[in-house]
Design goal:
Elements: H1 10-16, E1 25-26, H2 28-37, H3 42-47, H4 50-60, E2 73-74, H5 98-108, H6 118-121, E3 127-129, H7 130-140, H8 146-163, E4 168-170, H9 171-178, H10 181-190, H11 202-212, H12 217-237
Antiparallel strand pairs: 1-2, 3-4
Helix pairs in contact: 7-8
Length: 238
């Protein structure tokens, strides 16, 4: 990301990964390519073109009233594509609000103990599970905003598929996603032999459901680790 201008907002940094030629314009082809580089399948990446369909025109309003016939997204006015029923973590001009992100984890993390403060949470990494995301989405829904409800649901769904580890989205990863740095990290990790070791794909769903009767692959992994640890303890006792 060192090639990017220093004066970009957090929201501009968030989408800069998809601007492959750094011309402040994101084409449908670049959106598809970006999702593929992050490890999403062809079908999901094609579905990502809905981003251009719905968010191209709002960003053109920073330049003209006429819609872009090529459905391009203009990153210089990406803040105009903010929608309702979101978390409010980005301000109306695209800057990050870290205090709202802290509050989101404090209020929605189901692992937070009663009366736990932000200072207490510094001793451990906060995270959001699937149930927490459902509660967050329901909390943020505002009246008469079906478009915002849908966009928020798609965004959190995509985020969980990309980032989940042990069934949860971790605070460090989510912060890096909001400022865009995580996308570059994932692309670089996928180019290494080990690859990106987080996320959830259709292979995880199909394999775990077939072999274990559940789609929650992380729970199966936890059970396997537990059985392995029990075996190790038994060997030690012998």
């Amino acid at each position: 990301m060192s090639h990017l201008p220093a004066n970009l907002t957090a929201l501009q940094l968030h989408v800069a990964f998809w601007d492959y030629n750094n011309d402040t314009i994101i084409t449908p082809v670049e959106v598809y390519r970006g999702f593929r580089d992050l490890g999403f399948c062809v079908l999901f990446s094609l579905g990502g073109l809905l981003i251009n369909l719905f968010f191209s025109y709002p960003t053109t309003l920073g330049h003209t009233w006429l819609p872009d016939p090529l459905f391009r997204i203009y990153t210089s006015s990406i803040h105009k594509a903010k929608h309702g029923s979101d978390s409010g973590t980005y301000s109306s001009d695209g800057h990050l609000r870290p205090s709202l992100l802290d509050e989101m984890f404090q209020r929605m993390d189901s692992n937070v103990a009663e009366n736990e403060t932000l200072a207490d949470m510094e001793d451990r990494e906060a995270s959001l599970g699937v149930g927490d995301l459902f509660r967050l989405h329901a909390k943020n829904r505002v009246a008469a905003d079906p478009a915002g409800w849908s966009f928020a649901a798609m965004e959190w769904w995509t985020t969980w598929l990309l980032l989940q580890k042990d069934g949860r989205i971790w605070e460090k990863d989510l912060r890096a996603m909001y400022d865009g740095t995580l996308f570059w990290t994932i692309r670089d990790e996928r180019r290494k032999e080990a690859g990106w070791r987080q996320g959830y794909g259709w292979k995880d769903w199909a394999t775990t459901l077939w072999n274990n009767g559940t789609w929650k692959s992380w729970e199966v992994g936890r059970e396997v680790r537990g059985e392995r640890n029990v075996g190790i303890e038994a060997d030690r006792e012998l």
